[in-house]
Amino acid sequence: MSVLIALPFAASAQEADTIPSDKVITNAQMLGVGSAGILDTYLSPEKYSGTEVRYISHTLRRREGRRWSRMLVHQGSFAYADSRSGDGNEIAGMYTFTYGVHYNWDFLGGRLNVMAGGQADVDVGFLYNMRNSNNPAQARLALNISPSAAVRYRFRLWNTPFSARYEVNAPLFGVMFSPNYGQSYYEIFSRGDYDHNIVPTTIASTPSLRQMLTLDFTLGRTTLRIGYLGDFRQAKVNNLKYHSYSNMLLIGFVRSFKLTNIIP
Fold first, then answer.
1. CA dist list (Å): 3 to 6, 7, 12, 188, 205
2. pTM for the full predicted model
3. How far is CA 136 from CA 36, 43, 145, in A?
4. Which 8-state DSSP code applies to residue 172?
5. pLDDT by residue (tens digit) across 74-133?
C-alpha cells in the first residue's frame, strides 16, 4: 500500500519541481578563415596583407511572445601578414566582446524576422611588427557604441529547412587608446607622460563597418552554418592612421534550446 501511494506522489513532485522556460537561446559556433589587410602608421607606413583565422561564438536570447532580444558575441582572431616587398611581417591578435539589445518584428507567420537596436563592443588586442627594433608593438584597446540591425528569413527547399540571415553594424561613437605621433610606449608607461592617449572617437574618426551573411541548413539532427564575414575597421587619431580589413569564409554549427528551471 505504501508503494502505490508513494509513486504518484513522487511523480507529481517531480513535475512540480520542473518549470519549463519561455526563453529561447540560439547559439552558433563558427570558425572563419580569410584574407587580412593591415595598416598602422605608428609601426610602419607600409601596408601588410595575409591570412586571418577567427573563432566566433554568437548567441541570441529571446523570450517567446516578447519583442526584445539580447545578443552576446565573443570573437578571437589571429592574423599573419607580409609587406608588399616581402621583407617584413606583422602578427595581429584581437579579442572582441559584444553585447547588443534589439527590438524584433515578425512577419509571414514568423518566417521573416527583422531586428534593430544597438550594441557595445569592447576590443582588446595587439599588433607586432617583426621588423621593427624600436616600438615594435602596438596595443589595441577600444570601446564602441554601434547601431545594428539584422534580417532573417526561414524557408524550405528540397524538403529541407533553411534560414538566411544578414547582420550589420557601424560604430557611431566610443573611446580608444592610442599613442600620439612620435610618442613611445616608454614615455607613456615608464615616465607617465600622458599625451591625449585616451581618445574619444566618432564615426568621422573611425569610419568602420561589420557585416555578416549566413545560411543555416539541417542535416539529420545537426544544423550547420556557412557564411561570409566582412569586418572593415578604420581609425585616424593623434595623426596616426590604422585600418584592418577582413574578408572571411565562415563555417560552423547552430543550436537552439530552452532553459528549464528546477526548483529544489
1. 5, 6, 15, 76, 75
2. 0.87
3. 19, 7, 30
4. -
5. 999 999 999 988 788 999 999 999 999 999 999 999 899 999 999 999 999 999 998 887
